[in-house]
Design goal:
The complex is a heterodimer of chains A (387) and B (497). Chain A has helices at residues 14-17, 21-42, 128-135, 170-181, 198-221, 223-230, 235-271, 275-281, 286-298, 314-324, 339-348, 362-365; strands at 47-50, 54-59, 62-67, 76-85, 97-100, 105-108, 120-126, 143-147, 154-165, 304-309, 329-333, 351-356, 367-372, 379-383. Chain A has a five-stranded antiparallel β-sheet with strand order 2-3-8-5-6, with no helix packed on it. Chain A has a five-stranded mixed β-sheet with strand order 11-10-12-14-13, sandwiched between helices. In chain A, 41% of the residues lie in helices and 22% in strands. In chain A, a hairpin with a 2-residue loop joins strand 2 and strand 3. Chain A has three domains: 14-43 and 202-268, no CATH class; 47-195, Jelly Rolls, CATH 2.60.120; 286-383, D-Maltodextrin-Binding Protein, domain 2, CATH 3.40.190. In chain A, helix 5 (198-221) runs antiparallel to helix 7 (235-271) and helix 9 (286-298) runs parallel beside helix 10 (314-324). Chain B is an all-alpha fold and 497 residues long. Chain B has one domain. Chain B is 74% helix and 0% strand. Chain B is built from 22 helices and no strands. In chain B, helix 2 (36-60) crosses helix 16 (343-365) and helix 12 (272-291) packs parallel to helix 14. The longest helix of chain B has 34 residues, at 65-98. Chain B is globular and about 65 Å long. Classes of the chains: A alpha+beta (387), B mainly alpha (497).
C-alpha cells in the first residue's frame, strides 16, 4: 500500500557522495577529538579527592552534615551515599536532599532510595560563585547537607567525600553562561550533567574516542587494506553515527538510574507484598490522604461537608473533594476574619458536618466534635441541634 | 487488589479491541492497514469511542450513561470477536480445501524450519550481531514495561493537579454513573470543567469493568500508553521490512522510554503522554496520506485528527491546523474529481464529525467553555507582539529543552530530557536539506514547529503554563523524535564490511 519513498540516489552520484580514505580518516580523527574533549572537559572523570572534616549530627531522625569547603579556589563536588531504612523492613521512598550554602539555599530535589542494599549517590558541586558569596561570611562558609528523616524513616550516611575537578569544567561554565542568557540564574544545575554516572559515561567516551585512534594507527600501518575498506564511509555517516553514540550514552545513564529502580522494585516486592500502604504512609500528603479516607468512612454519605483550613491550598481542596465525593465540600479559610459567618452561612444551607486538621472553637460555630483521627489533630464535627 | 488489577487489564483490552473494531469498520483492513501505528491507534480510538458514546447518551437523556456505553462497547467487542472467529474459520477451511497445509504437522514443520533457520544463522555467524542486539533491546523493553507496571501499582494517585482535573472527574462519573450530576450540582474552581473528558472516561471505564474505583487499578492504562508511545514514536515514519530496521526500532524505543520525562509519565496520572501518543499517530497517519494521497487515507487521517480535541484542549488547535492542511492537500491533488467517495471513507468522515460535534454540543449544553484560559485573538496578538512575556516564554522552553529546568510532576526521575533535544537539533541541522526535499518529512518538521510555537504563545498568554513546560513539550518531543529516528535510520554503514 505504501510506496517506497524518500530520495533515490542517482546512479552516477554515488561516488560523488563518498569521501576518499584520507577524508574518512580525518573525519574519524575529528570524531575522536570531539569525544575526548567531551569526556575530559564535560565529565568529572579527572578529579582528585580532597581532605575535609565532616561534622555529622542527628536530630529527630534527620541527618545534618557540616563541613568547611577547601581553601583553594576551584570546582568541587561532593559525592555522598545515603540509605534510608525502616526498623522492620526496607522500602523505597522519595525524600529530598538539600545542600544548603550559608547565604543562599541551593536546593536539590533529588531523591534517595530507602533501601538497605542500594545506596544512591549523587554529586553536588560547590562552584566559585557560591564560594565567593560565602567567603565574606563570618561562619567561613560552612556548607550543610541536610537529609530529612523521621522516627520511622532513618537516613544513614554510608560514604561522603569531596572531589576537585582537575580540568576546567566546561559543563558547569556553559550552564552558567547559558542560564544567564536565558535568564534562569536560579535554575538548579541539571542532574544529568552533575551525576556520578558521568564516570561511567567517561569510560564509554574514552573507549569510543580511543577506537578511531586505533583505526588511525592501523591505517598508518596497513594503508592499502584500510583504504579499500573505508571508502564507503561518508562524512555525514560519521557525524550521524557520533550523534547515535551520544544518544546511546544519554540513554545508558538514565537506564542505570532505572536499573536501580528495577532492583529496588524487585527487592521490595519480595520483602513485602503489602508495600503499597507502607509506601503511601511516607509520601508527602499521604497522611493527609489517609485522613480523608478515614473521613470518607466516618461521615454519612448524605451529609455535605465544610472543610475548615488555614489558607486555600488547592492541593488539599482537590484531595478533600476527591476522597469525599459524592458529598459536596465547601472550603472556609480560617485566616479570614469573618470565617465564622461564612461557615455559618454554609451550615444554614444544608451542610451538616465539618472537618478540620486542627482543633477549632466549637461554641462559635455551633458544632460538636464526634470523632478524631489522632489525639491532637484531624477532627470531624457535626452541627449541633437547634435546641 | 490483584483481582482489581487483572480486571483493569482486561478492561483495557476491551477498550483496545473496540478501537480495532472501529478501525476495521472504517478501513476494512486489519489495524487500519497501518501495522504498528494502527495497533497503537486502537487504544486512544477505543477511549474516544467510549467517551463519544457516553456523551451521546447524555445528550439523548439516558440516565445510566456510563453503564449503557459500557454495554455498547461490550456488544461491539463481541460482534467483532464473532466476526474475527468467522473470518478465521473461513480462512482455515479455505486453506484446508486448497492444499490442506493448515494441519498440525504442517504447522510444526513450519516452526521447525523457522527455528532451524535461526539456529543455522547463529551457527554460521550470520545475523549474529543484529539478533543479539534485538534480544538485548527486547529484554530492555520488557524490563522498562515491568518497571512501569510496578510503579503504577505501587504509587497511589498522588499528583494534585491530575487529581483535580482528571482523576476526580473519573471517580465522580463512576459514582454517579452519569455525566450530568457532576456538572449540574458541583462547582469547584479547581476541576477545570473545560478539559475534555475522553481520558477521565477511559479511567471510569476501567472502574466500571472492575466493579469499583481503585486508585491503583485505574492507573494500569499508563504502562501501555508508555510502551506504545516508545514504539510508535520510533517507528512512525520508518518503512520497509528488514531485520536491521526492527533492531533499530527496538533500540530507539528503549532509548526513548528510558528518558526520565517519559518514564515518569508511565505511572503518574497526567494524560500528556496519551495526548503525545495521539499526536504522533496523527502526524504519522497524515504522513501516510501524503505518501499516498487517496480518499481512504484522507478519511483515516481526518478521523485520527478529530480524536485530538477529545483528550486535551490544545488538541482543538492542532486539529484546526491539521484539517486545514489536509484540505489544502486534498484540493491541490483534486482528489474529489478523480474518485468517488467509497462507503468506508465516508464512514471515516462521519465518525470524525460525530467525535467532534458530540463533544462541542456537550460543552455547549453544560456551558463548559472550550477554552478557559487567556483572552481572545486580539489579546493574543497584543501579547505576542508587544509584551516581554513572549520572549520569556521562548527562553523558558529553550532552557527546558537544554537543561530540563522544570519538574512539574515531582516524580521519581525528575522529568528530565537529558541531552536528547540537543541531539535532535543536531540531527535536524545536519540533515536539513534532506528534510526539505521530502514533502512528508517537511510536514512532520513543520508540525513539530507549529506545536512548539503554539505552546510558546500559550506560555506567553498564561505564565502558569510555563511551570509545566516539561509536560507540554511531550507531543513536540514525540513528533521530533519520530523524524530524527527516521533520519538516523537512513544512516548506512555499508562502508565497513
Amino acid at each position: 500500500m505504501v510506496k517506497e519513498r524518500g530520495m533515490t540516489r542517482p546512479k552516477g552520484g554515488v561516488q560523488a557522495e563518498k569521501l576518499n580514505a584520507r577524508e574518512s580518516v580525518l573525519a574519524l580523527v575529528i570524531l575522536s577529538f570531539l569525544t575526548f574533549f567531551f569526556t575530559v572537559f564535560f565529565t568529572p572523570i579527572f578529579s582528585e579527592k580532597v581532605d575535609c572534616h565532616f561534622i555529622i549530627t542527628r536530630e529527630e531522625g534527620a541527618l545534618t552534615v557540616k563541613f568547611n569547603p577547601p581553601a583553594a579556589s576551584g570546582y568541587y563536588f561532593i559525592s555522598c551515599g545515603v540509605n534510608y531504612s525502616n526498623k522492620t523492613t526496607s522500602f523505597p521512598g522519595r525524600v529530598g536532599i538539600y545542600l544548603i550554602s550559608p547565604q543562599n539555599e541551593v536546593t536539590w530535589s533529588s531523591f534517595a532510595y530507602a533501601d538497605e542494599r542500594i545506596s544512591y549517590r549523587r554529586l553536588y558541586f560547590i562552584d566559585e560563585q557560591s564560594r565567593s558569596s560565602s567567603a565574606g561570611d563570618d561562619a567561613e562558609g560552612i556548607f550543610t547537607l541536610f537529609f530529612p528523616g523521621s522516627e520511622t524513616l532513618v537516613p544513614h550516611l554510608s560514604s561522603i567525600s569531596v572531589y576537585r575537578r582537575v580540568f576546567p569544567p566546561l559543563d558547569i561554565k556553559l550552564f552558567y553562561i547559558l542560564s544567564g542568557v536565558f535568564g534562569m540564574h536560579n535554575a538548579a544545575f541539571p542532574q544529568w550533567l552533575s551525576s556520578p554516572d558521568g564516570w561511567v559515561l567517561s569510560l564509554i567516551g574514552i573507549s569510543i574516542s580511543a577506537s578511531p585512534l586505533f583505526i588511525l594507527l592501523a591505517w598508518l600501518l596497513y594503508r592499502g587494506v584500510v583504504r579499500s575498506r573505508m571508502v564507503g564511509i561518508t562524512f555525514r555517516t560519521v557525524t550521524m553515527f557520533t550523534l547515535f553514540i551520544f544518544l546511546t550514552m544519554n540513554s545508558a545513564y538514565f537506564l542505570k538510574d532505572l536499573s536501580g529502580l528495577q532492583m529496588s522494585a524487585a527487592v521490595t516486592l519480595r520483602n513485602n507484598e503489602n508495600s503499597v500502604e507502607m509506601f503511601s504512609n511516607n509520601l508527602p500528603y499521604a497522611s493527609v490522604n489517609n485522613f480523608f479516607k478515614w473521613c470518607d468512612l466516618s461521615i454519612k454519605k448524605s451529609s455535605d461537608v465544610v472543610m475548615l483550613m488555614r489558607g486555600s491550598s488547592q492541593y488539599l481542596q482537590a484531595r478533600a473533594a476527591y476522597f469525599l465525593y459524592p458529598r459536596k465540600v465547601a472550603f472556609v479559610d480560617m485566616d479570614e476574619l469573618d470565617y465564622v459567618d461564612i461557615a455559618r452561612h454554609y451550615f444554614d444551607h444544608g451542610y451538616d458536618a465539618a472537618i478540620s486538621f486542627e482543633e477549632i472553637n466549637e461554641g462559635d460555630l455551633g458544632l460538636h466534635r464526634i470523632n478524631s483521627y489522632r489525639t491532637n489533630s484531624g477532627f470531624i464535627y457535626e452541627v449541633r441541634d437547634a435546641d | 487488589m490483584r483481582t482489581e488489577i487483572i480486571m483493569a487489564l482486561f478492561s483495557i483490552l476491551l477498550l483496545w479491541m473496540s478501537g480495532f473494531a472501529l478501525l476495521y469498520l472504517v478501513t476494512r483492513k486489519p489495524a487500519g492497514g497501518l501495522k504498528a501505528i494502527g495497533v497503537a491507534l486502537a487504544l486512544p480510538l477505543g477511549a474516544a469511542l467510549y467517551s463519544t458514546l457516553t456523551i451521546l447518551f447524555s445528550l439523548i437523556g439516558v440516565r445510566r450513561q456510563l453503564i449503557f456505553s459500557y454495554y455498547a462497547i461490550l456488544i461491539i467487542d463481541f460482534l467483532f470477536f464473532v466476526f474475527l472467529m468467522t473470518a478465521f474459520v473461513l480462512k482455515a477451511r479455505e486453506f484446508a480445501r486448497c492444499d490442506g497445509r493448515l494441519n498440525l504437522t504442517g504447522l510444526l514443520r513450519k516452526i521447525r524450519t523457522k527455528l532451524t533457520d535461526i539456529i543455522s544463522s547463529v551457527k554460521n555467524k550470520r545475523n549474529i550481531v543484529p539478533l543479539s542486539l534485538l534480544t538485548i533491546g527486547i529484554v530492555l523493553l520488557g524490563l522498562l514495561f515491568y518497571d512501569a507496571i510496578y510503579w503504577a501499582r505501587v504509587v497511589p494517585i498522588t499528583f494534585w493537579d491530575s487529581i483535580s482535573a482528571w482523576s476526580f472527574k473519573a471517580k465522580a462519573f463512576f459514582i454517579d454513573g452519569a455525566l450530568d450530576n457532576f456538572f449540574n450540582n458541583y462547582d469547584y474552581s479547581f476541576t477545570h470543567n473545560s478539559y475534555p473528558l475522553a481520558f477521565s472516561l477511559a479511567q471510569s471505564f476501567i472502574a466500571v469493568a472492575a466493579g469499583g474505583f481503585s486508585d491503583v487499578a485505574v492507573k494500569m492504562i499508563f504502562p501501555f500508553i508508555y510502551v506504545l508511545f516508545g514504539i510508535t514514536a520510533s517507528s512512525a515514519l520508518i518503512r520497509g521490512k528488514s531485520l536491521m530496521k526492527v533492531v533499530f526500532i527496538v533500540i530507539m524505543s528503549a532509548f526513548l522510554l528510558s528518558t526520565p520525562v517519559v518514564f515518569d509519565h508511565s505511572y503518574i496520572e497526567y494524560p500528556n503522554l496519551l495526548f503525545a501518543l495521539c499526536v504522533v499517530i496523527c502526524t504519522a497517519v497524515t504522513f501516510n496520506f501524503l505518501q499516498e494521497p487517496t480518499l481512504d487515507n484522507l478519511s483515516l487521517a481526518s478521523m485520527t485528527t478529530s480524536i485530538l480535541p477529545l483528550f486535551r484542549n490544545e488538541g482543538m488547535i492542532f486539529f484546526a491546523f491539521n484539517i486545514i492542511f489536509l484540505l489544502i492537500v486534498y484540493f491541490r491533488n483534486r482528489l474529489g474529481s478523480k474518485t468517488k467517495i467509497s462507503r468506508s471513507s465516508l464512514a471515516g468522515f462521519v465518525l470524525s464529525f460525530v467525535f467532534l460535534c458530540s463533544w462541542i454540543a456537550f460543552s455547549l449544553k453544560f456551558r463548559l467553555g472550550v477554552w478557559e484560559w487567556g483572552g481572545g485573538a486580539a489579546t493574543t496578538f497584543q501579547v505576542v507582539t508587544t509584551e516581554p512575556m513572549f520572549v520569556f516564554s521562548i527562553k523558558t522552553y529553550i532552557a527546558e529543552m537544554l537543561f530540563s529546568i522544570k519538574d512539574s510532576t515531582g516524580a521519581f526521575m525528575g522529568s528530565g530530557y537529558g541531552i536528547i533535544w540537543v541531539l535532535i537539533f543536531l540531527i535536524f541541522a545536519i540533515r536539513f536539506p534532506y528534510i526539505l526535499k521530502s514533502r512528508g518529512r517537511l510536514y512532520i518538521f513543520l508540525s513539530a514547529l507549529i506545536m512548539l510555537i503554539t505552546y510558546i504563545i500559550g506560555g506567553a498568554l498564561v505564565p502558569d503554563f510555563l511551570i509545566s513546560a516539561d509536560r507540554y513539550l511531550l507531543p513536540v518531543f514525540g513528533v521530533a523524535y519520530s523524524l530524527s529516528a527516521d533520519l538516523l535510520c537512513e544512516l548506512k554503514l555499508t562502508g565497513l564490511k
